[in-house]
Amino acid sequence: GKRLLLANKESLVMAGHLLMAAARKAGAVILPIDSEHNAIFQCLPAAQAGAPGLEGVSKILLTASGGPFRSWSAEAITAATPAQACAHPNWSMGRKISVDSATLMNKGLELIEACWLFDVAPSQVEIVVHPESIVHSLVQYVDGSVLAQLGNPDMRTPIAYGLGWPQRIDAGVAPLALVALSRLHFEAPDETRFPCLRLAREAAATGGTAMAVCNAANEIAVEAFLAGGIGFAA
Predict the structure, then answer these.
(1) pLDDT surpassing 90 at residue 20
(2) Where does the DXP reductoisomerase C-terminal domain start and stop, copy by copy (predicted)?
(3) The pTM is what?
């Protein structure tokens, strides 16, 4: 009956079947700290009573900032440097996850994470590029309703949610000023320029060890890129 605040995605990507089975056997509730999955948890039904369910849910909409190269051409992306890849427009993150965000592999790994956490098929998770990183994710229902969780891009919010759940506690985060934001934008991801997203989705659909292989290959590729051994589009 413990509460597990999950702050990494690799444990689910590599061995989601083992972790989720152990949680079910122990009666544990897994509270994701990833801002997107925390948002989904909040928007799913019964999140206040225990592990969220899927009653009436038709689709999960997982948002992505698009990374620093969202508007770059394919040719420009080919010449991207580690410093450019690590310059995320909205979040302050480590070098490895910053590169994953730039390639959209981070979002692909988060798709796999969502499938395990919420027991949905890859086809039920849609990636939506949202450059402002204000809408952290959404859940679409069969009646046409879409519930979204909004907030400033500050990790203190999902951490506070996990610590306080099922109550709410003060996270020390500035209130969201919607009028000042004025506009929010959404677009489809370009899997031609960012093929890592497609690779992760295919790994999720394949199942078995494909997801672990995808994650391991990405770890090696990112390490080589940061060391100057390969180019960004290698």
Answers:
(1) yes
(2) 150-233
(3) 0.94
